[in-house]
Design a protein that fits this description.
two-stranded antiparallel ribbon, 37% helix, 290 residues, single chain, disordered N terminus, alpha/beta
């Protein structure tokens, strides 16, 4: 009882405090404690504690039109920002936070059949729309392409998603996920995938987590030139290809041979039809006086 005081100082109170871990969702910083002398009373001046909530990392999901994974994007997770693109996603995605339309040729005669309804749809939307300029959609936001190219160089902008990945990194994204993006057709594989690979590596260098669902094959790297073909898998692929190539050649030879026979027989039938039509009565010449 001798240690109890009617009016306790801060130091007295501190002895009674129990140590604890910080709260899960809070960061306690800059605890300002007034200086007190022993025996000094605390009068309406409690310690001031500033709670600073940590800003959650920016996570951006890019959504293309490949049906295998397009609808797997985290539409219901508010911690993810959803970026869409392409006429094929028009009116399809459950949630859109921003849209990207990089093409400036949508109203050319050869594209107008789908470009015109697409542009009309874009003009009716209220989410941010990034385009080259505002010529087609008055409320569009011009993509800062000069700044992006200055940051990343001009060599790998081979698709809309290359621009989107680069822009996401410039926005400070810590995670970028790709949904509905395969780039698996031959033209896409040859022309567009190198750009995607470049920005995967660029993201890795910048500490950005790049990911895609298993339903997509976009994260699969190409073979290592000179090395992949001499592995067991590489040799098997080459052997299987040689086998199928030979079977195709054999069947084409059979087909071509059969085609030649068909052509010959069709000619014989045509010749026979001629003789039957013109000379069908030659055996009756003795009766007709011929």
């Amino acid at each position: 009882m001798a240690d109890l005081k009617l009016t306790q100082t801060f130091n007295d109170k501190a002895k009674l405090m129990t140590a604890h871990e910080p709260l899960k969702d809070e960061i306690w910083q800059n605890i300002r404690i007034p200086a007190f002398n022993q025996g000094e009373q605390i009068v309406n001046e409690p310690p001031v504690i500033q709670s600073i909530l940590e800003t959650p990392p920016l996570k951006i999901a890019l959504v293309g039109t490949a049906p295998s994974s397009r609808m797997l994007a985290p539409y219901s997770d508010p911690s993810w920002t959803i970026w869409g693109c392409s006429p094929g996603n028009m009116g399809v995605l459950p949630r859109i936070d921003a849209w990207f339309e990089i093409h400036g040729n949508l109203m050319w005669p050869e594209h107008k059949h789908y470009g015109e309804p697409y542009i009309n749809w874009l003009r009716q939307q209220t989410f941010p729309i990034y385009m080259q300029n505002q010529e087609l959609v008055p409320n569009a936001i011009p993509l800062p392409y000069r700044e992006i190219v200055k940051e990343f160089g001009p060599y790998f902008f081979t698709s809309s998603f290359a621009w989107m990945m680069a822009f996401a990194m410039m926005k400070g994204a810590k995670e970028v996920a790709l949904y509905g993006i395969d780039m698996a057709s031959r033209d896409e594989y040859i022309l567009q995938r190198p750009g995607a690979y470049y920005f995967f590596e660029e993201g890795k260098k910048r500490g950005v987590k790049m990911q895609a669902p298993y339903e997509s094959d976009i994260m699969q790297p190409p073979g290592l030139y000179g090395f992949s073909e001499v592995t067991q898998y590489g040799r098997k692929l080459l052997a299987r290809k040689a086998e199928l190539d030979q079977r195709v050649r054999d069947l084409k030879a059979q087909r071509d041979g059969a085609s030649q026979q068909v052509t010959y027989l069709e000619g014989a039938l045509e010749d026979l039809d001629y003789f039957h039509t013109i000379f069908g009565g030659v055996q009756d010449n003795s009766l007709t006086g011929g």
